[in-house]
Amino acid sequence: MTLMPQLTHWWPRPHFSLFLLVLWLLLVNSISPGQVLIGAVLGWLIPFSTQQFWPERPHLHNPGRLLLYMLRLLVDILRSNLSVARLILRDPDTLTPAFVRYPLSLTNEFAITMLASSISLTPGTVSAGLSPDRAYLLVHVLHLDDEDELIEQIRERYETPLREILE
Amino acid sequence: MNHLPVLPILLPLITGALLVTLPRLGLNAQRFISLGATVAGLGLVLWLGSMVLEHGRLVYALGGWAPPFGIVLVPDRLSVLMLVLTATLAVPALIYACRGDDDAGAHFHALFQFQLMGLNGAFLTGDIFNLFVFFEVLLIASYALLLHGGGTARSRAGLHYVIINLIGSALFLLALGMLYGLTGTLNMADLATRISNAPQADQPLLQAASLVLLVVFGVKAALLPLLFWLPRAYTAAAAPVAALFAVMTKVGLYAMIRVFPLVFALDQPLAALTAWQWLWPLALATLALGGIGVLGATSLRNMTAYMVIVSTGTLMAIIALGSTEALAAALFYLVHTTLLTGGFFLFADLIARQRGAAGDYMVVTAAMKDRRTLGILFCFGAVALAGLPPFSGFVSKAWMLQASLAEGAAGIFWPLLLGAGFLMLVALSRAGSKFFWRQSPERDHDMRADRVRLACVIVLVGAGLVLSLAAAPLMDYTRSVAAQLMAPGDYVRAVHEAGLRLTGGH
Amino acid sequence: MTATVLPIALALFSLSLLLNLYRLLRGPDIVDRILGLDTLNVNAIAVIVLGGIYMDSSLIFEAALLIALMGFVSTVAMTKYLVRGDVIE
Amino acid sequence: MMLLSIVALPLLGALITPLVSRRSTAILPALIAGAIGITVVSVLLSQAPDVLGGAILIGHYPWLPGIGLSPAFRLDALGLFFALIIAGMGLLITLYAHFYFAGKHGAVRFHSLMLAFMGAMLGIVTSENLLFMLVFWEMTSLVSFVLIGFHQDERPARRGARMTLVITGGGGLALMAGVLLIGNSVGSFQLSDILAPETALTSDPLYPWMLGLVLIGAMTKSAQFPFHLWLPNAMTAPTPVSAYLHSATMVKAGIFLLARLHPALGDTDAWLYSISTAGMATLLTGAFIAMFKHDTKELLAYSTVSHLGLITLLVGLSTRMAMVAALFHLLNHALFKAPLFMMAGAVQKATGTRDMRRINGLWRTLPALTVISAVAAASMAGLPLLGGYLSKKMFFIESMNASVMPPLQWLTPALAAIAGLFSAAYSFRIFHNVFFNGKPQDLPVWPPKNPGVGIQVPAAVLALAVVLVSWHAESVVHGLIGPVASAAAGSALPDYDMHQLHHIGTAFFMSLAAMLGGLLVYMAREPLFRLYDQLPPADAREIFEWLMTRAGGTAERLVHALENGSVQRYIALIILSAIVLAGPVLLSGIQWHGGETMTPVDPLTGLGLVLLMASAVGVVLGHHQRLFALLLLGSAGLFVTLTFARFSAPDLALTQLSVEVMAVIIMMLALSFLPQTTPLESSRLRKGRDLGVATLGGLGVGLVSFAIMTRPHSTIADFFLSQSKPGGGGSNVVNVILVDFRGFDTLGEITVLGIAAVAVFALTRNLQLKDRIPQERDQYWASNPHPLILRTMARPILPIALMVSAYIFLRGHNMPGGGFIAGLITAVALSLQYMAGSLAWAHERMLTPFRPLIGLGLLLACGTGLGSLVFGEAFLSSWFGHYKLPLLGHLELATALLFDLGVFTTVVGATLLILANLGKLMTVHGPGKEIG
Amino acid sequence: MEALYAIAVGVLTACGIYLVLRGRTFPVIMGLTLLSHGVNLFLFASGRLALAAPAVIGESADPTDPLPQALVLTAIVISFAMTAFVVVLALRAAVELRNDHVDGVDPEEDWRP
Amino acid sequence: MMGESMALPFWLDALIALLLLSGALVALLGSIGLARMPDVYMRLHGPTKASTLGVGATLLGSMIWFGVGHEGLSAQEILITVFLFATAPVSAHMMARAALHRRVACREGTHGEPWDEMDRLPGYAESSPSSDNQR
Ligand code: NA
Ligand code: NA
């Protein structure tokens, strides 16, 4: 059913196949040869048969840095939650919410997505929209102190690393 | 191991699945496959019938799991009667459909096969939850078939039909929950045993379950306050579908006479059941309403739909008497009325096709090209349906009247039955004279009736005569069916023994 | 210690569920309600997992997994419906 | 065989006639009919000596002995007498009809029907089995219906036919009831048993019913007041039909029946009063009205009504010779009325009309017919020495002898005399008005032409018979009527003193008075006509039609008041039925708490259930805002899932969850095209009613659920738990039940899903929507349907979800999961691609043969089941095995997995087929493009 | 617990019945869904309520009755199929009849999709 | 009910307890935000971050609890966590987009105007009220 009309690559996504194999082994909670075989077969078969659904192949320049980026993001998430907690428990009237347009310099779709997600997961910001020409992200800020600082922070912490990793 | 009992379910299932698998198959190929399977199905059930005649009753344990744990099919005389009746109706209905009705929408043949599968399954199963499942199979197929061809009337009637049956299904599940919660089993024979041994404290709940089941089956069988979905649905359906639907109301009836005598009346007379005591007045009211409806109908299809109600009212009233003889008479009448009303649905369509925009409405139009043939056919059919001699309607009516007299129920039943017959006579004579005698002065319709369609109608209407001529063996058979039904202990024993055989072999 | 904390955690999540349902019922906008339902789904995952620890069984963790998947898909479907008036086009 | 042939020959003839002669003007049908008539008459005559001597010939042909329905024939004097009239008349009518129809269409049809009728009529009079007699009885009604409607394009013909059928058919049903009562009481439907002296029906408690029902049958057939209305309206039939059916034969069937059953049912006061009253009323009504009819056939029809009344009255009188008089008059009536009808037919042919005000002085044109008619009319008028006079005089004598209501002893003879007077008057009229009475006036056929000799021959034969019977009255009465009457009375009658008839006594003067009175009335006809015209017009046909229309209309209204097309009412009725039926049973002394100890409520579960209820109530309260209600429905689904999870049903939780999401998406897809809000249109009353029904229903279900849960439980579950592993090869018992123990249910279940998907495909196939309603005022749609962020994130989700799906599928047999859930996960993952991309985008990327997928899934599941047949096992028998493979280690193979794969495939195919076809509705895919 | 559960079943059923009696297709369909929830929970309870006793061999000492679970599973699937169908049918009826009243006749006005 | 016989090292037990408790607290915080905040855009913040994190912490706790001696390491929790973190922003984005599309008002005093340049706004470029039904 998901076998597409045009199969272009016999092994479209080696990394992803590996990820699926690990996922499988974790799911079945076993590393018996049989399960490895099944996991490997599925890990190849599923990306193979659905490759047309995921046509873009983002070339990771530096997988290690991506991992690092994730880690930093995680820390940011934790931090952001503490700050958001304070905000939430404050009297909402004292908050100064804002919509901020963040000018994008990224062009890669995956990178934009990653950026938008990072923004949403981190302190007091939610990416609320993307302009059709992908010129800027509309960001809703729960409590805005300084718009420029916020934009600069995002650019420095997320956009720049992402451009380096993904573009 | 003899697998015959399961084949009447599998054959249409596989045929239907095959037709769905090959959606680009040409119409003629579909017809060929569908018709072949239906005819083969007729052969199959006849063969099964001969085996049942030989053994009385077969018990087929699916998956080899002993009852009451696994699902069993228990083809007995009643099953065979219903199976053969369905197949007999299905063949001409399908042939009729193959003349063009099947092309009015998608997947007619697959749906038709699934419908047969559901019907056959319902007639064969010995497990009450499995009965529910087959009810759903036949219902979903019937929803689709009812809507086959499209149009506003169908959408409207279909919506009602579907919603009401969904509520019926919910009630069915409710009753099943009650039964399982109190007995812990689903096999009908086992249920019977457990219910007859149930503690006194559970009796009100079990009775309530039986009454909910009465409502469920009553919706399908068209019992009075539950039947109002029927006239429009049957009037709106495509002719071959309506013809097949003639057997659909009988499924509800089948379920009644399958479940109640066996499951709830193992150790008490049927007539003592609360459900049965309700059935009597409600059925009589149904009969009365059907008669009035026949008189008030404005189209032949609508009239036939009300004749279906008359017939179900009659049937339920007579089975409500609870005697073997009454049951036998009812079963004979069931065969007669199913084939005849089925044939009449086709006939109404045949006429409608000849009369242009007037359709089967009872208005005056130009003369039909084939009005001689059609008129004679109408005459025969009307006579048979109204219960006049020499056709099977008369035979069955005479029998039912006698059986009800023996039960001391003549005082109410006779006037109603005879009165309904009278109203049918009035209505049919009016319809006939409008269709065939009265013509507006415009130019005659010059289209001839399709010969194959005509033949299908002749076959079904002719059943009235055939059933009358072959009444003696059929009556013997329905007597034996009734006798078997009224001895539920044998059923229970047979299933129990089959269970023992299987567990012994395990 | 886990045993002590578990009921407290469950109680806190129950409170969360209540607050989510409040938002779902209260609105005012349909987006608020969707948000309420989405959060309800997320918290239900935690409740299931805590229930699993409580019953010492990970048997129902697939249910949590499915809630994550299904909750996401239904949120997407609903927001898409709001924006496009259609879900699949 | 001989008995059978009497009935069978004409019936066979009826079938053969249309087959052998295709031209409807051919002579062949008449020849066949004639030959059959002659044969039957000969057969009857050959038996006459024996039968009249008292022999009773009986032949049995067992058919349905179980319900007493077997053809059995009987020829006794009574039957022979009637059979001879039927066959003999039939012969003459055949001859007459041949000339009547000469050159006209319809002869074949007519002869065929006539033969059918003759056979049926012979069947009635020769039936030994009373139940089987009904077959013939109804057949005569039906044939008569068709014959009356012979001229289909004439409105009166159609109406007359219908009226006849309704009245006689209805009477037949009453008769059926009566016959069944008799048969039940006697224990047999054979006349030999019923008429046996030891049978005591008259003391049966149901006797009044038997008599009443039989009487209704007889009265409708024999056109007795008030059922007589059909007969005049039946005159629209061709004249041979009127002459045969409606004067000579069919209308006598009722009288035959009374005569036949007289031994069993007669000799009671009930018999006497009911029958003689009916007869007298008919006699008077018919005679009176006949006088005022200007149409020859109508006059004759009312005259027939009157004479039938007379005969009925005689049958009802309990005097010793009444039966003789009745039968003798019956013979005379047949002989004189038939030629008069034939005359009417011939005159119509000659003049083109039947209106006596226009037909005059035909004696010049039709001299022979004038003579014939003179004889017949004289006999009808009761002119001395003719048969009619004799039988009528017998009637007068019997009316005086009768011991009806002693205080009113004079009444019967007085009424009889009045009837005789009118009878004489109309007899004069029909003769005088037609053949004399000046010149014809503007006839349609001018000059009147002689229709030929042939058509007059049968009438002449009958006129001759009138003379002969009159001449030899004594021997006819002694030799024929006597034995017949004995047979009818059930015992031998004393010799009838024929000299009494020639005696000049009271009866003679009554006859004379009637004659003269009749003459006077006839002379004074013009003022009488004017007087009659001033009576309020009471056209039976109009009344009948009005009644029928009214009945139809009332029925229609009544039915539509009940079946009013409101499904809300139907649903309420269904639910109320369940409540009303089950409610009282539950309330009568049930112990709600079954005795088992209850599980204590833990707060979390309690909260979950409360939230579930809150969601449900929220759906109700918020249902006017549809999307909102849908969200709450989703929430309710979530809490149902949690409930299942809490109460140890992980499989259910998984299934409920996946199904819920799918269902909500499907509902949302549909909601795109539906109004977003539900109007506030229920009245307060309606809401109250619904709330009441809902409360009762919910209360009932809740209480029953409680009652069940608190009762002890013993189930077959132990078997499943113990056999799941060793027998089914899986440790997830629910899954083993689904794919093995009760795999057949699952097969049915996926079939339902597959059918539903195919049905959705069929429903949406020609439904193309390019347009939809705005959700709210000034609503417009975003132009970008596929936001980038969603699109990007959806891509990796698909393979991961498929992996999860594979995992859920493979572990299903041992752990919660299985083909169904895996299928839904796959479907949901793909539907996310529909949402993030588009239908077209997704479909470019996959083969989309969803229907084949459904079919293949079903075939796979079914094929797995069939596989076991090869090994001699029952359908769906499972097989599993454990293998130890080198390198790979432990491996378990089970057919159940294959079955589950079928389930998986069907579910994926069905779900996607539904989604895709709903999704395509607003998408321009090109007209009629099929998806799936 | 049984009592509360029974109340929940009753409330679901009552809500379902009330909605099923509405005049527009969409609430009716939602009512049918609620009704089937109620009925499924009812059927489920026919095997009695058991905590932490899934019918998976080896998972618990005294597993609950698995049969009602299998029945409810079948019922869920069937009612899903039926819901899908009736939704589409309601849609089709609304398009063809130009209103979404269950009887196909809008008491107020015609609505055009 | 829970396997209390299982002896966990104290620090692990404490870690699990901490994770569960803090997770529940954080999640509750998110829900409080959902309930308390004055407009839909502000309400989005709580669930998107706090609930996701809270549930994530709970899942981590569960993973450790089951991983250490109960049933072995199970992937479901990892998968769920990853999945939640991946999808929460998307959901939030979609919801915000929907709210914007529906022109749900933001609280008084919100800085910035999301709708000021209608044609420049996400998803609005090619759409106008007059052409709403033509696609
Ligand atoms: Na005249
Ligand atoms: Na769409």
UniProtKB/TrEMBL annotation, chain A:
Keyword Transmembrane helix annotated: yes
Record localization: Cell membrane
GO CC field: plasma membrane
Superkingdom assignment: Bacteria
InterPro entries given in the database record: Cation_antiport_E (IPR002758)
The entry's keywords: Cell membrane, Membrane, Transmembrane, Transmembrane helix
Keyword Glycoprotein appears in the UniProt entry: no
Membrane topology per record: Multi-pass membrane protein
One of the record's GO molecular function terms: monoatomic cation transmembrane transporter activity
Main location, first listed in the record: membrane
Transmembrane segments: none
Xref: PANTHER family: NA(+)/H(+) ANTIPORTER SUBUNIT E1 (PTHR34584), NA(+)_H(+) ANTIPORTER SUBUNIT E1 (PTHR34584:SF1)
Entry-linked NCBIfam families: PRK08965.1-2
Family: Belongs to the CPA3 antiporters (TC 2.A.63) subunit E family.
Protein name, entry field: Na+/H+ antiporter subunit E
Species of provenance: Vreelandella halophila
From TrEMBL, chain B:
Pfam families, per the entry: Proton_antipo_M
Residue ranges annotated for the NADH:quinone oxidoreductase/Mrp antiporter transmembrane domain, each copy included: 127-408
Main subcellular location: membrane
Membrane topology summary: Multi-pass membrane protein
Molecular function GO terms recorded: NADH dehydrogenase (ubiquinone) activity
Record localization: Cell membrane; Membrane
Keyword Hydrolase: no
Keywords: Cell membrane, Membrane, Transmembrane, Transmembrane helix
Gene Ontology terms: cellular component: plasma membrane
Transmembrane regions: 6-25, 32-53, 78-97, 128-147, 159-182, 208-230, 242-266, 278-297, 304-324, 330-352, 373-392, 412-431, 452-475
GO terms, biological process: ATP synthesis coupled electron transport
Entry's family note: Belongs to the CPA3 antiporters (TC 2.A.63) subunit D family.
The protein's name in its UniProt record: Monovalent cation/H+ antiporter subunit D
UniProtKB/TrEMBL annotation, chain C:
Main localization (coarse): membrane
Subcellular location: Cell membrane
GO cellular component, one term: plasma membrane
Cytoplasm keyword on record: no
UniProt key word tRNA-binding: no
Source species, domain of life: Bacteria
Membrane topology per record: Multi-pass membrane protein
Cited Pfam families: MrpF_PhaF (PF04066)
Membrane-crossing segments per the record: 6-22, 34-54, 60-83
Keywords per UniProt: Antiport, Cell membrane, Ion transport, Membrane, Transmembrane, Transmembrane helix, Transport
UniProt GO molecular function: sodium:proton antiporter activity
Annotated InterPro entries: MrpF/PhaF-like
PANTHER family in UniProt: NA(+)/H(+) ANTIPORTER SUBUNIT F1, NA(+)_H(+) ANTIPORTER SUBUNIT F
Annotated family: Belongs to the CPA3 antiporters (TC 2.A.63) subunit F family.
Protein name: K+/H+ antiporter subunit F
Automatic annotation (TrEMBL), chain E:
Keywords, comma-separated and alphabetical: Cell membrane, Membrane, Transmembrane, Transmembrane helix
Membrane-spanning ranges: 6-21, 28-50, 70-91
Membrane topology, from the record: Multi-pass membrane protein
A Gene Ontology cellular-component term: plasma membrane
InterPro entries hit by this protein: CPA3_antiporter_subunitC (IPR050601), NUOK/Mnh_C1-like (IPR039428)
Family statement drawn from the similarity comment of this UniProt entry: Belongs to the CPA3 antiporters (TC 2.A.63) subunit C family.
Protein name: Na+/H+ antiporter subunit C
